[in-house]
C-alpha cells in the first residue's frame, strides 16, 4: 500500500477534523484503504492475472493505477473549450455565471452517475460500523473520499479556464475563481448528499432506490433546462453589451450567485442584487456544509434502509410480459432471455443508476436543440422546417443502454450461462436487445415522436416512422459493435475506462443516419425509399448481426 | 415454554436485554427478548430463518436502530452513541462482506487498526494467526481470489485480532473443511474457558449441541427455550437438539414436505 500524497496534504488539517469530532488517524486509515481499493478496480480478468503474479511472490503496487485518472482528459478538453467564456470580455456576471453553470452541470452529473455508489455504500456499514469507530469519522471519510475525486475532476475541468483567467484578468480574478470553485464543490457534494438524505428519510427499501433513480432523471432534465435559462438571462447576441437585470427568480439560479462576486469584488459594483448573490455564494455552501455535518450520522443510519427488503411486488405483469415475449421471440430461448433481460433491467440497481440519467438527457436534448435553433421563429414557425430531424438526438441513450446491459452488480451469477445447456448465444443476445428496445428505447422514442408530431403537424409522420426504423437498426448496430458479452455478466467497476472513446464512432453513426435522412427529404419519395431500405436493413440486421463477427 | 437459566456465575452479566422489541415496517421481528449473558459461556443462539437472531446481534452491535426496550453490552447501550464497547466485541457476520480487492495482509491490518491496535502489531498478529490456519502463502494475495473457506478464516481472524471479550459468530464454520472445523471448535472452547463469551448462531444443530454451554432457541421473535442441552432434553423428551428444535418450533411435517417436493421434481 502506498503512502498517498493526498493524505499528506490532509495531515495539515488534522486539528480541524478533531474539532468536528472526527478521529483523525482512523479516518486517514479508512481513506487510505478506500483509495487503495479504487486503484485496483481493474477488469476481472486482468485482476486475476495480476494476482497470480502476486502469489508468485511478486511485489504488488507499481502497476496500480486509478482508472478514474485516465478519464480526466475528457474533462480537461471540455474545460479548455469553456475557457473561451473566461477570455471573452469583461462582462463577468454573464461569463462567470455561464462558466459556473457548465461546471456545476458537468461535475454534478458525474457525481451522481459515478459516485452515488460511494455515497450509498452499505458494505461500509457491516465492516466499519461494527468496529469502534464513531459515525462521524466514517461519514467524514466518505465525504473526503468523494471530495478527493471532486478535487481532480474540478482540477481537470478548471485548469485551463483558471490559466486563461490569470493571464487575461490577473491574480485577483484567479484567486477569487479558485475560492469559488472550492465553495461550488462543497455545495455540490453537500446538496447531493442532502437530497439523498431527504429521500432516505421519507422512503424505504426498494421504493427509495427507485426514487433515487427518478431523482436522477429529474435532476438531469432540470440541470439541462437550467442551463438554457442561464443563456436566456442575457442577450446572447452581443456579449459586451449584455445587460444584466436581476429579477427575483434569478435568485434560484445558483451559477449566478457564483458569477456575482466577480462583479462586486473586481468591478466594484456594489448594487444590492450583486451583493446578495455574492453573499449567497459564500454562505449557502458553508451553511449547508455545517448542516450536512450535523446530519451525517443520520444519513449513515438511514442507509440501513437500503439493505432492508422492500415490500414484495405484486404478481401480474407476468402474464402480459409473457405474451409480448411470445409475440416477439422466435424461439423459446429467445423469449426466456427477453423476459430475463426485461426484469433485470427493472431490478438491477446499477443498471438503473447508470442508465436513467441518460434517459433524462435523451428526453430533453431534442427539445433543447429545437428551441435554441427555432427561437426566432417561435413554435408556430416549426411546421415546414426540417428541424424535426433533431429527434435523432433521443437515440443518444442507445449506446449507453446497450453498453450497460452487460454489467451487473451480481456479475458472478453469470456462471449459470456456462452451466445451463445454452448451445447458441444468438437467442441470448437477440432476446436481451429486444427487451432493451421494447422496454426503454421505443417508449422513449414514442413519447418524443408524439410531441414532435404535435409540434410539427401530421406531415412529419412518415419521417418519424423512418427515424424510428433508423433507431431500431442503430440499436442492433450498436449492440454488435459494443457488446457481444453475455447480458449482466461483467463487473461494473470495469465499465469506467475507455468506453467514452468507443462511443464516439457510434455518435458519428447516428449523425450519419440523420444525414442520410436529411438527404432523403430533399428527393421526392426519398423518404419512402429510405424507409424501405431501413426495413430491409432491419430485417437483415436482426437476423445476422448477432452471429456475425464485427470489429 | 422452558425457562431455566443454568448459569449461576457470580460475575455480572456482560449482556443484558430487557423486553427488546424491534419492528420492521409492519412486522415485529423481536417480540420482547429478555436475556442475561454471563462471561465464559458459549451460547448457542438458534432458531428458524427469520426468527430474529441476526437482528438481535445487529442491535447489540449498533447496526440496527429503532428498537424499544433495554440493551446493555458491558453496561453500555448502543443507542447512547458511544463506540468504545465495540473494542471488546468480535463479529463474524453471516453474509461476509469484505473489502476483497485488498490482500489479506492489508485487510487484516486495517481491521486491527480500527480496533485500536498498532499497525505493526496488527500485521504480525494477523500473519501468525493466518499461519496457524495454513494460509501463510496467501498473506499478500487479494481476498477476491480466496475460496469460501479461506475467506471465512480471514473473517474469523479479523474478529479475534483485538482479543475481544464477546464474540458474535454467525455460521462461523461455513465453508471450512473438517480439519479446520475441529480447530475452530477447539479454539472456541479454549476462549470460553478463559472467560470469553461466545454468541454462536448456526443452523447446524449437531455442532450447537456439542459446543454450547447454554442454548437459546428463538422463534417468532421470542425466546422459547433457554438452558443447557441436558435441561432442554430433560424437558422435551427428545433425543437430539434437532428434534427439540423441531418440536419447539412446532414443525413436524418434514416427511410430508419432502415427499411432495420430490413429487413435484419428478413432474417433468
From TrEMBL, chain A:
The keyword Membrane applies. Keywords: Membrane, Transmembrane, Transmembrane helix. The chain crosses the membrane at residues 72-93, 99-122, 143-167, 173-199, 211-230, 272-293, 355-375, 387-407, 428-458, 464-482, 503-519, 525-542. It comes from the Bacteria. The keyword 4Fe-4S does not apply. This is ABC transporter permease. It comes from Paenibacillus vini. The lineage of its organism: Bacteria, Bacillati, Bacillota, Bacilli, Bacillales.
TrEMBL record, chain B:
The keyword Repressor does not apply. Pfam families: ABC_tran. GO terms for molecular function: ATP binding. Gene3D superfamilies: P-loop containing nucleotide triphosphate hydrolases. PANTHER family: ABC TRANSPORTER, ATP-BINDING PROTEIN (PTHR43613). Keywords: ATP-binding, Nucleotide-binding. Residues 15-245 form the ABC transporter domain. CDD domains: ABC_DR_subfamily_A. This is ABC transporter ATP-binding protein.
Amino acid at each position: 500500500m502506498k503512502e498517498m500524497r493526498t493524505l499528506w496534504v490532509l495531515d495539515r488539517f488534522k486539528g480541524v477534523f478533531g474539532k468536528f469530532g472526527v478521529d483523525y488517524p482512523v479516518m486517514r486509515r479508512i481513506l487510505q484503504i478506500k483509495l487503495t481499493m479504487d486503484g485496483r478496480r481493474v477488469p476481472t480478468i486482468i485482476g486475476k492475472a495480476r494476482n497470480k503474479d502476486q502469489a508468485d511472490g511478486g511485489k504488488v503496487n507499481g502497476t496500480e493505477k486509478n482508472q478514474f485518472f485516465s478519464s480526466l482528459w475528457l474533462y480537461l478538453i471540455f474545460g479548455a473549450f469553456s475557457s473561451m467564456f473566461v477570455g471573452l470580455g469583461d462582462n463577468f456576471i454573464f461569463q462567470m455565471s455561464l462558466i459556473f453553470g457548465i461546471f456545476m452541470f458537468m461535475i454534478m452529473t458525474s457525481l451522481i452517475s459515478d459516485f452515488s455508489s460511494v455515497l450509498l455504500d452499505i458494505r461500509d456499514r457491516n465492516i466499519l460500523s461494527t468496529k469502534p469507530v464513531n459515525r462521524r469519522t466514517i461519514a467524514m471519510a466518505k465525504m473526503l473520499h468523494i471530495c478527493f475525486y471532486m478535487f481532480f475532476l474540478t482540477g481537470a475541468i478548471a485548469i485551463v479556464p483558471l490559466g486563461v483567467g490569470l493571464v487575461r484578468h490577473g491574480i485577483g480574478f484567479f484567486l477569487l475563481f479558485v475560492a469559488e470553485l472550492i465553495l461550488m464543490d462543497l455545495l455540490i457534494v453537500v446538496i447531493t448528499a442532502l437530497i439523498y438524505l431527504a429521500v432516505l428519510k421519507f422512503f424505504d427499501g426498494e421504493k427509495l432506490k427507485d426514487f433515487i433513480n427518478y431523482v436522477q432523471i429529474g435532476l438531469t432534465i432540470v440541470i439541462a433546462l437550467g442551463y438554457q435559462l442561464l443563456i436566456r438571462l442575457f442577450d446572447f447576441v452581443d456579449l459586451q453589451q449584455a445587460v444584466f437585470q436581476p429579477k427575483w427568480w434569478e435568485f434560484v439560479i445558483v451559477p449566478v450567485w457564483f458569477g456575482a462576486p466577480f462583479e462586486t469584488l473586481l468591478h466594484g459594483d456594489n448594487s444590492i442584487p450583486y451583493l446578495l448573490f455574492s453573499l449567497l455564494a459564500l454562505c449557502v455552501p458553508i451553511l449547508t456544509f455545517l448542516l450536512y455535518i450535523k446530519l451525517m450520522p443520520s444519513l449513515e443510519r438511514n442507509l440501513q434502509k437500503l439493505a432492508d427488503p422492500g415490500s414484495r411486488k405484486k404478481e401480474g405483469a407476468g402474464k402480459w410480459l409473457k405474451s409480448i415475449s411470445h409475440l416477439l421471440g422466435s424461439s423459446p430461448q429467445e423469449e426466456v432471455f427477453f423476459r430475463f433481460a426485461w426484469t433485470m433491467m427493472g431490478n438491477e440497481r446499477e443498471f438503473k443508476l447508470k442508465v436513467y440519467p441518460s434517459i433524462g438527457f435523451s428526453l430533453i436534448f431534442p427539445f433543447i436543440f429545437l428551441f435554441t435553433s427555432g427561437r426566432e421563429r417561435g413554435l408556430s414557425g416549426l411546421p415546414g422546417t426540417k428541424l424535426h430531424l433533431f429527434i435523432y438526438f433521443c437515440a443518444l441513450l442507445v449506446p449507453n443502454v446497450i453498453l450497460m446491459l452487460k454489467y451487473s452488480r451480481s456479475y458472478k451469477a453469470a456462471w449459470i450461462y456456462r452451466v445451463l445447456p445454452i448451445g447458441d448465444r444468438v437467442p441470448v443476445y437477440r432476446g436481451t436487445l429486444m427487451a432493451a428496445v421494447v422496454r426503454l428505447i421505443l417508449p422513449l422514442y414514442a413519447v418524443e415522436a408524439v410531441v414532435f408530431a404535435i409540434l410539427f403537424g401530421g406531415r412529419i409522420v412518415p419521417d418519424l416512422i423512418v427515424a424510428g426504423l433508423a433507431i431500431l437498426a442503430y440499436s442492433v448496430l450498436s449492440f454488435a459493435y459494443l457488446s457481444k458479452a453475455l447480458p449482466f455478466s461483467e463487473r461494473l467497476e470495469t465499465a469506467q475506462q475507455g468506453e467514452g472513446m468507443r462511443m464516439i464512432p457510434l455518435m458519428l453513426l447516428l449523425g450519419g443516419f440523420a444525414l442520410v435522412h436529411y438527404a432523403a427529404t430533399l428527393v421526392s419519395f426519398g423518404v419512402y425509399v429510405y424507409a424501405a431500405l431501413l426495413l430491409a436493413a432491419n430485417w437483415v440486421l436482426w437476423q445476422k448481426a448477432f452471429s456475425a463477427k464485427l470489429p | 415454554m422452558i425457562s431455566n437459566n443454568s448459569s449461576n456465575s457470580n460475575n455480572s452479566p456482560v449482556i443484558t436485554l430487557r423486553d427488546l422489541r424491534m419492528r420492521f415496517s409492519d412486522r415485529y421481528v423481536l417480540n420482547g427478548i429478555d436475556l442475561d449473558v454471563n462471561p465464559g459461556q458459549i451460547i448457542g443462539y438458534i432458531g428458524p430463518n427469520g426468527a430474529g437472531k441476526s437482528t438481535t446481534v445487529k442491535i447489540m452491535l449498533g447496526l440496527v436502530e429503532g428498537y424499544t426496550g433495554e440493551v446493555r453490552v458491558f453496561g453500555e447501550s448502543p443507542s447512547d452513541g458511544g463506540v468504545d464497547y465495540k473494542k471488546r466485541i468480535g463479529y463474524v457476520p453471516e453474509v461476509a462482506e469484505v473489502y476483497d480487492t485488498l490482500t489479506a495482509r492489508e485487510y487484516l491490518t486495517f481491521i486491527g487498526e480500527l480496533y485500536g491496535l498498532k499497525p505493526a502489531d496488527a500485521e504480525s498478529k494477523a500473519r501468525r494467526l493466518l499461519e496457524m490456519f495454513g494460509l501463510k502463502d496467501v498473506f499478500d494475495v487479494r481476498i477476491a481470489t480466496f475460496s469460501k473457506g479461506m475467506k471465512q478464516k480471514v473473517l474469523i481472524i479479523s474478529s479475534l485480532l483485538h482479543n475481544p471479550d464477546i464474540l458474535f459468530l454467525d455460521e462461523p464454520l461455513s465453508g471450512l473443511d473438517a480439519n479446520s472445523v475441529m480447530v475452530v471448535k477447539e479454539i472456541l472452547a479454549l476462549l470460553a474457558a478463559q472467560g470469553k463469551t461466545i454468541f454462536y448462531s448456526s443452523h447446524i444443530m449437531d455442532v450447537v449441541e456439542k459446543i454450547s454451554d447454554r442454548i437459546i432457541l428463538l422463534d417468532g421473535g421470542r425466546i422459547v427455550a433457554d438452558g443447557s442441552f441436558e435441561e432442554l432434553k430433560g424437558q422435551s423428551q427428545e433425543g437430539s437438539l434437532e428434534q427439540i428444535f423441531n418440536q419447539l418450533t412446532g414443525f413436524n411435517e418434514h416427511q410430508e414436505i419432502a415427499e411432495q417436493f420430490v413429487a413435484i421434481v419428478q413432474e417433468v
